[in-house]
Amino acid sequence: MKVLLVDDEKHVRDAIRLLVNWQEHGIETILEAQDGESATEMITQHHPEIIMTDMMMPIMNGVKLLEWLQAYAPDSKTIVISGHDDFSLLRHTLKYGGTDYILKPVDPDQLNEALAKAIQAWQKDEELRQTNRELNIEMNQIKPMYWDKLLSNLIAEPSSYEQAAEPLEKELHLTRPLSNCRVAILSLDTMERSVKNKFSQNMDLLLFSLINICNEFLVNDKRGYAFRYWNSDNEIVLLLWKDQPGAEAFLAKINEGMRTALHTRVDFGIGSSHAFPADLTLSYQEARIALRQRNLKAKETWIHSTLKPAAAPQLTLTFSHYEERIQLAIRSGNIAQIEQAIQHWMDAVKQSDTITLEQLDHWWREYGVMKRRWIQQFFKGISEEKVKEMLLDEPASLIVPLDEHGILSLSVWQQELTRSIVHLSKLMLESQHKDKNVIFEIAEFLEKHYHEDVTLQDIASRFYLSREYISRKFKQEFEVNLSDYLGQIRMSKAKVLLRNPHLRISQVAEMVGYQDEKYFSKVFKKSEGMTPNEYRKSANSS
């Protein structure tokens, strides 16, 4: 805390320094001035909380200083120390906010008591100021959200206007009656990559910055208001109610402001003028259509309107027409073949004079459907959770492929599409290789454990696979059922053992996994066309 001593007599200032226990009062800095004029300079520079001043001084006296303090430093507390017992001076002190009037010679107790009272008064006021600051901060945080919600609701439900008319007129200067209004939408789709990267961890800050720039132009000119549209992710809407014919030129002016502040420009879609508030939704929809149908291949303007003549219609190009060729390339696992298939599609895209956001979105959705279908075909029996997991490498919504300047880049799109499809092909091949490996591991297990009572359920539990999956894959790989494969191993081992005349048939049966000799004999005869005993005689006689 700081105190300023103002008196034209130095010995008085020195005396006050000695009479007060500054440390006890929490005073860290003691400043001095010899008249009111020099005091104003010190106050402006150092902002002392407490000011002790004489009344009779040259250049600017205490009376004038008190008046100046009330106008320019109203938060500070003032104690007058005067050699004049004058009622008019006392009244002037009270009128201009002085907390005490002390007569010279100064009584130490009286001075310390007055200082304590002044500090307490300042602290009480400071608590109130702090509370007000916090409330203002909170209100400043809530206020934009309030307007965002109110105006978003106005577009979705124009009938809500009557309830909001008074605050709109008071705060946004949207005066009644207002017959028409235009809606514009600021698009982030084609913003330069460097700016998006800068705000990648805080999109809210980017939106806040863009809205502030818009409103610096709109609100100051009482032309309209920009806000964050609650019914769509990361969308900024501008209501334009003044000089509507010149709206496009004004949006271009805002864009120049963005170029200066953020070193980027943005695309605006703007609807035509419609009745306010009844047809706000219609103007908003026109602005969206203007953005979605703008030609991303040609950057002729940043301001897009449905009033401009549309490009000549083109033959519909669909991604699904190229599905079979791309699917065959995926199955091949050959990167060159995949690149060739994607190039075939891109060549067709490059023939289009116009590529709109609407088209890109349609192709994106087509690719999403096809990729899901491919996963389900390539990975038989895959769960829905696993399908979703494999689709996580793709963003949930369309990301427009742009170069570093925010212009549509077909080469960037081709690279991303190729990367995605090559990745899927690798996953498919890895899965097939893994499937093949595990089936051979099962076959190896049967070779080593043929003499045990091995069931399909035992194998399924051991290898963490379903019985159905093992049966299907085993048949595909070895062209026989697993049970028949196990039987072949047992019969082959049994024939070797039967050549040993010292082993009984029951022992051989048990050694190859059969506890019942009769059942073993039945299975052996069915497999080899003779009984185990007949085979033994035949083998040993040859």
UniProtKB/TrEMBL annotation:
Compartments reported by the entry? Cytoplasm
Q: Where are the transmembrane segments?
A: none
Q: Which InterPro entries match?
A: CdaR_GGDEF (IPR041522), CheY-like_superfamily (IPR011006), Homeodomain-like_sf (IPR009057), HptR (IPR051552), HTH_AraC (IPR018060), HTH_AraC-typ_CS (IPR018062), Sig_transdc_resp-reg_receiver (IPR001789), Tscrpt_reg_AraC-type_HTH (IPR020449)
Keywords of the record = Cytoplasm, DNA-binding, Phosphoprotein, Transcription, Transcription regulation, Two-component regulatory system
From the Swiss-Prot or TrEMBL record, what is one GO molecular function term?
Answer: DNA binding
- Boundaries of every HTH araC/xylS-type domain copy: 440-538
UniProt domain Response regulatory: residue ranges: 2-119
Q: According to the UniProt record, list the residues that bear 4-aspartylphosphate.
A: 54
Does the keyword GTP-binding belong to this entry?
A: no
The answer to whether the entry has keyword Flavoprotein is: no
Which Gene3D superfamilies does the protein's record reference?
A: 3.40.50.2300, Homeodomain-like (1.10.10.60)
| Identification of the protein by name | DNA-binding response regulator
Instruction: State the species of origin.
Output: Paenibacillus marchantiophytorum
